[in-house]
Amino acid sequence: MSALDRIIDRANLYFYHAKKSVSVVSRTIALVALAAMLTSVFPTLAEESDPVPQELEAPQPPQEEPAPAATEESNQEEPAPVPSTESSESPEPEVSDEETVEEEEEEEDEEKIEIAEEQPRIAFRFPNSVAHDPRANVAFLPELGFAGGGIGMFCISFNGSIDVSTKNIANNSNEGTLLIQGDLTSNVRIAGNFNQMAQLINSGGGIKLISTNGRLNWSSVSFGYVELTGIENKPEFCGGISSSRSIGFRALRLQMDNVKTRVDFNKPKGA
What we know:
By secondary structure, the protein is an alpha+beta fold. The protein contains four helices and ten strands, in the order H-H-H-E-E-E-E-E-E-E-H-E-E-E. The strands form two sheets. Strands 2, 3, 5, 6, 7, 8, 9 and 10 form an eight-stranded mixed beta sheet that branches. Strands 1-4 form a two-stranded antiparallel sheet. The N and C termini lie far apart (200 Å).
């Protein structure tokens, strides 16, 4: 038997003793012991059950909730926002459409080429008429002299066909510093620098004239010049010609008056 069992048997012996005085004393001692145990154990249990007061912690800022997981529909990447290039300065006032049109019209007016207000006096250094074979319908003009111009346009007219520069080819050109229009027609316009135009007129053996009415008798070719504010080839500029000159054709008189001796052909002997 263990010691604990012995103590329990001894307590039962005194607790249920035959003598009433012994049993009362033992029960009283048991009650006192029980009361002492209760008074000592219950406060300890109460202290253990009460939570130890913890130090007050400083309130923490609320944490941002994590963004919900993107669904399959929102998995597509959105284009990154383009950084704004606008400056912090105040925006400039917008220009209206009417003001823009007016500015464009002013620029066009400034660049528009017109007939010059002051027209030079051109010196035409060639004769008023040239002699030609009365049977011919094609003629080449001799070298023609011009002086006094700057930037402008020559207007050449003839009652047939005018061929300038490379012959038998229409040398029309709308680019560069020498503009040609109407080549191989009855009205030719040449615009550009005065000296360059003079060289072109005299190039290729001179201007070639082709009569469309048969012979060149009693026909003429006219040259007119107008000074411009720039290089441009327009037919209306010919209406402002300030200097002009014409060349007429006269027929050569083919005569036999200069033959003064008779020419006999030798006949063979015995003829």
